[in-house]
Amino acid sequence: MPKRRTLPYILLGLIHSNQQMTGYQMMQEFKHEISDFWTASHSQIYPELQRMADDGWIRPLALGKKVASKRNQTYYQVTTTGEQVLTEWLETPLTANDDELFPLKLFFIDDQNSKLLPPLISRQLELSTERRNYLRHRMTTVFPNQTAIQAHYGHYLTLSRGIERESNYVSWLKKLDAEMKR
Q: In this protein, which residues make up the domain named Transcription regulator PadR C-terminal (predicted)?
């Protein structure tokens, strides 16, 4: 089954968070804010905006203000349908195949009391704990002794780093989860 396209949800989240935006402003958001965990190019964003407008998720507003380039920019606003689509995406539970979406979903939750936060954090905690436990099991299976470690030391180091990364992620998520339950 093909993966669901993610870019439209990112664009919906950006427009929703800012009430209205131009394609250029969205590119700047990708460049300065979102690039730490997702990238998109000019050639991806503008066709996607057109598809979203065609689908009724966003609407172009009347040609906007003059900008520095002396061109009119089109501002986009999320429609009621787009709001529903964004909410459904944010509410859709993560799976082991798409948990890389966690930071994106988290990015678009503006209110620390949002009902979306606890299940999102809890689910990511489950997935990360499973991954950490799997990596720990792999370590004992693949590297049962010092001879095995020495024979494939780079692999051992890579696996060790993966366990450390997931363990730190699990610790951070447990802290967030506890805060949500207060």
A: 102-179
Domain 7-95 has CATH 1.10.10.10: yes
Cα separation, 7 vs 28, whole angstroms? 15
Instruction: Determine what percent of the chain falls in helix, strand and coil, rounding each to the nearest 5.
Output: 65, 5, 30
Nearest Cα neighbor of 163 from 128, 134, 135 is 135
What is the helix (H) or strand (E) element at residue 77, kind and residue range? Answer: strand 75-78
Helices and strands in the chain: count of H runs, count of E runs = 8, 3
3-state secondary structure of 151: helix
Q: Which residues contact 79 (CB under 8 A, 6 or more apart)?
A: 56, 57, 58, 59
Name residue 97's amino acid. Answer: N
Give the model confidence (pLDDT) of 83-95 as tens digits: 999 999 999 999 8
Half-sphere exposure of 89 (CA within 13 A, CB side): 25
Report pTM: 0.80
pLDDT at 140 over 80: yes
